[in-house]
Amino acid sequence: MIAANIGKIFLNSYNEKYQSNYSAKEFFIEKYYELFFNHNKYMMSAGNSPLENPKISWDKMRTGQIPYETVEKRKERFEKTIEKIETKPADASIAIGFPTLDFSAPTSGQITNMDLPLKKEEMYLSWIGSGFGIGVQSGKDGLSLLFSNKQILLDLFEGWQVYRDYLNSTPGLRGNQINTWNGQWIAHRYDKLSYDAAYPTASFNPFGTMKDGGMEVNTQLWTKVLIGIARSYPETTLTAYIYSLGQMNITVGFVPFDLPRIRQPYELYNKYFGTTKSEQIEQLFGTAIGFTKACQMGAIGVNALEPKGFRDCMYKGVVPKYNPADEEKTINFNTYQIWLLAMLNNEQLWDKAQKIATTLNAYSLSDKNAKKVKSQEVSNLLASVNKKQFIESLIDIVKGSPEIDQLAEIAEIIHTMPVDNVPYFLTLIRFQYAVVNKKS
């Protein structure tokens, strides 16, 4: 029924924007069906509805192994679908997202013996709303997102005709990928560097090659989709319904997205290191846990954008070597630093971490002892994982350093910091120390 609600929101927005007065049935027949199903290649699977022809293999049709079906056959299946919607009770075969009435089927959840006041209009709306699922990379589950935001729905609708044009003009392109297409389209549509409203498909290549030589729409990274939305809707929190419909239906539920916090690490990276490699940078954030596990947090913000391999840096003290001559390693190194700063949510700590790192490096370099006692004291300090260890290690350094005031300030910063932030800040100091030490 979620799809029906999304369909209603979109239809109201569409009628308002285009000054029309479509009912759900009229829009389904005149717009939706014509785009999605009244062609040799569908934009999405029609499931168990009469619209789907179970005797046809769409891949074999695409590769020319079997002939395209006739217009008459399509019309016959369309009329059967309309008749079933108008005369039969709502179920999964004529209403997207509704349960099957077969109690033994794996999609028979939420069955009730109550006579719910379901209107025929809701069945048509469910079809319309189902076309707005945004498919993202999420492991084997293939999850999709449904947003109720009016403008996102209208922007997705713009992409429907583009997808239809590609299907009609590209014989080897397989169909039934509307959700995957929506993910690619919305990421492109909200990419201010590449999207041109006058030439909407310029700099846009969402396709990949299949094993049989055909083409398909590649699944977009979930981080790419979300950062595009976050940049387009500043200072906003949006909630998405996350799900997967197939032989087994998966419902993750409603998950809020903290768009300002999602946007923050990208903005910080641009501020401190520039935007010359934005595509590569965007592929690093959110690689540690994946989208499915991120949803399990209950809400998605900057913590879900943790880059892969970071935990070794924070919990094992393994900081990558800083090598400004290696561009790829430098980008990875800086990505870790920026995510730490975003998690701390306090830009002043960037300068403070640099100052601490510079002080510690100067102390280490002042070591004239062949046993390198001061260097070892700094190493012990940098290995600290909590307040107690850090303060205790700092005491040894205070005894041998003239920079009493600066070291006292360091102690105060750590002592007054929230406990949850301490491991992140200590890790940021390690990264900054690696940079200062390399330069010295």
Question: Would you give an account of this structure?
Answer:
With about 450 residues, the chain is α+β, with helices and mostly antiparallel strands. It has two domains: about 1-105 and about 120-255, no CATH class; about 325-330 and about 340-440, no CATH class. The protein contains 18 helices and six strands. It has helices spanning about 1-20, 25-35, 60, 70-85, 120-130, 150-170, 180-190, 220-230, 260-275, 280, 290-295, 310-315, 325-345, 350-365, 375-380, 385-400, 405-415, 420-440, and strands at about 135, 145, 205-210, 215, 235-245, 250-260. The chain has a four-stranded antiparallel sheet. A hairpin with an 8-residue loop joins strand 1 (about 135) and strand 2 (about 145). Helix 8 (about 220-230) crosses helix 9 (about 260-275) and helix 15 packs antiparallel against helix 16 (about 385-400). The N and C termini lie far apart (about 65 Å).
Distance separating the two termini: 63 Å
- If you compute it from the alpha carbons, what radius of gyration comes out, rounded to the nearest whole angstrom? 28 Å
Order of helices and strands: HHHHHEEHHEEHEEHHHHHHHHHH
> Could you tell me the strand content as a percent range?
5-15%
Mean pLDDT: 88
Could you name the ranges where pLDDT drops below 50 across 5 or more consecutive residues? none
**Proportion of residues in helical segments:** 40-55%
> How many extended strands?
6
Q: Helix/strand-derived class?
A: alpha+beta
